[in-house]
Design brief:
Blueprint (H helix, E strand, L loop, with lengths): L3 E5 L8 E4 L8 E5 L2 E4 L9 E4 L8 H6 L2 H10 L5 E6 L13 E2 L5 E6 L10 H6 L1 E2 L5 E5 L10 H11 L5 E5 L9 H8 L7 E5 L5 H6 L3 E2 L7 E2 L7 E5 L2 E3 H14 L6 E5 L2 E3 L4 H7 L2 H6 L2 E5 L4
Parallel strand pairs: 1-3, 2-4, 3-5, 5-6, 6-8, 7-9, 8-10, 10-11, 11-12, 12-15, 15-17, 16-18, 17-19
Antiparallel strand pairs: 13-14
Length: about 300
Amino acid sequence: MLEALELHEQGTYRHYADVDITAAPRLQYLNITSALQLTGISATQSIRQFVLKEMRDRWTSWASSVASPSGILQLLSTSPKLELVDMNVRVGWMRLDRPPRQITSPSLKEVSLHVTQKVHTPEVDIGFILDQLNLPALQILSIDLYSGTSGGMPFSSIQSLVGRSHASLTSLSLIGQCTGLVMLEDDLIDCILHLQDLKSFSLRCMPITNTFINALVPTHRSPGFDRIRVLCPLLDHLTFSASTFTEPRVINMILSRWKDTNHPLRSVHLLSCNLSPSDGAGLQSFGEGEVAKKMGLILEVDDRRA
């Protein structure tokens, strides 16, 4: 019985194939990067991994439908064994009514959503999708707005999703647009405040500053008390790109987490960031020092501007 299917487009001519997977009831892995019409997906209850990466200029009516917010919600509601979803998403091109109840996908562990539709006044965004979901098994979440909407990152929707799902999210990757993205760092801090299981956190093409770095520094809850407030206490890996920091603040944050947490940072990656006062030289020197080596720190400083 067919369990895995990959469909890839080749050549320069557009050919829209019709593929019916109704006759593959045990299909578990479906990877699509071609222009086609697919039928039978609602009848396929065994799918565990679904990947849809359509070229932006080759959307078929089927791909447009599945990659829409309503299509994604339908996919999740009809595929209870799904463990991984990695999709290009078209948003802002239609107005939708909210479903009568939230959709629970009990097995979904990893979700990657990449916005591909450029729109200036989206009526439906990624947050709309997240607000309709209950994902109790969710461990890895990635949202990529780089090629899409000019709207902001849906921090409140992410926070609400993890909270109501009682999910143990261990990895969060957020990619903004480098330019034109309006973001309040307080919203970001509120978003991850209750992500106690987060081990890997990546923020790319987002205007992060010392405000967020300072929030990662463990602090005493009040004078005279030994209890320490730690944001993301299990954090091991941290990545920033296209952000602006002062090097002493970053170094202080790393040192403080080594001192005051049971899970010290193991890797920090600063890519195409504006670093003062020495354009990253101070951080590189710190990363090559004896203390960093003793702690096993992997510190990457790439000063090429995004």
